Amino acid sequence: MSLTDRTIFITGSGGVLGSTYVRRMLAEGARVVATDLPGHRAEALQAAHEGNANFRFYTLDVGEEAQVEEIFQRVITDGWEPNVVLNNAAITGEMLMGAGKSFPDFCDTTVADFERTLHTNLTGAFMIARQMDRDIVGRYPATLINVASMYALNGAHHPIYDGMPFKNFSAYGVSKAGIHGLTVWLAGYWAPRKATVNTIAPGAVFNGHSDEFQRRVGELIMAGRMAKPDEIADAMLFLCSAQAGYITGQLLNVDGGFSAW
Ligand SMILES: NC(=O)c1ccc[n+]([C@@H]2O[C@H](COP(=O)([O-])OP(=O)(O)OC[C@H]3O[C@@H](n4cnc5c(N)ncnc54)[C@H](O)[C@@H]3O)[C@@H](O)[C@H]2O)c1
């Protein structure tokens, strides 16, 4: 699939999936405007693509309104006007595990815990979309892809987390359901200005999980196993492409059949 006519802006690009998307997009000829928080993920991504003329990196915290409000003008001034935007950044289980923490039990969840996740995962996505509306939508055809999860419209299977070093966090699923609400709200609002917006809902992606966790989650998935990051990227690249131009307001589950039982 050719992406040579695409300049793709992506948030949270240094993570497991983000870095896979960037690698695959560059391989298909897209220009990629990668953004992330400062830190080891951002550094590794920049090191991996240093010298690639189609790759550009900007530091961006999607929870910081002032940063979001200036990002597209900076990118456009630098000659990297995006026609595809990916709301991919999120506080995920992986991130807290990496920090040596785990999500709290529901009864111990503070308002601050809950709102911190919502702020990044949902308010951050809203601010990116609002800025896209201000700076891009209506000026030329564009598309937004919001990243949800298999746990957006389906409940988490809590027993599979028993005894695991991580849990499934209430605010995560809530934020991912909300992001599809943003998609369907915007689809009709932007259609007259030739912008489309869709949601991709990745399933469980393998990232070094234990055999026991893989077995438990695999039993919930028709395909019987977790996804490889490249299998999510296959669908993401399609949504980014011109071939997806007549699709708007939709949610694409890429979950090995998890949501279809
Ligand atoms: N991996 C999975 O199994 C899975 C499944 C379903 C959905 N998803 C979704 O896919 C997306 C990518 O997931 P991943 O597995 O690559 O996660 P990850 O934790 O590896 O990466 C998340 C990225 O978001 C960035 N981020 C966090 N807070 C940010 C902020 N305030 N501003 C900017 N960037 C911020 C992190 O630095 C990181 O690079 C997320 O939206 C996630 O919810 C992942």
UniProtKB/TrEMBL annotation:
It holds the Pfam family adh_short_C2. It comes from the Bacteria. Signal peptide: none annotated. One of its GO terms (molecular function) is oxidoreductase activity. Keywords: Oxidoreductase. The keyword Transmembrane does not apply. Its EC number is 1.1.1.-. SUPFAM superfamilies: NAD(P)-binding Rossmann-fold domains. Transmembrane segments: none annotated. The keyword Oxidoreductase applies. Belongs to the short-chain dehydrogenases/reductases (SDR) family. This is SDR family NAD(P)-dependent oxidoreductase. It comes from Rhodobacter lacus.
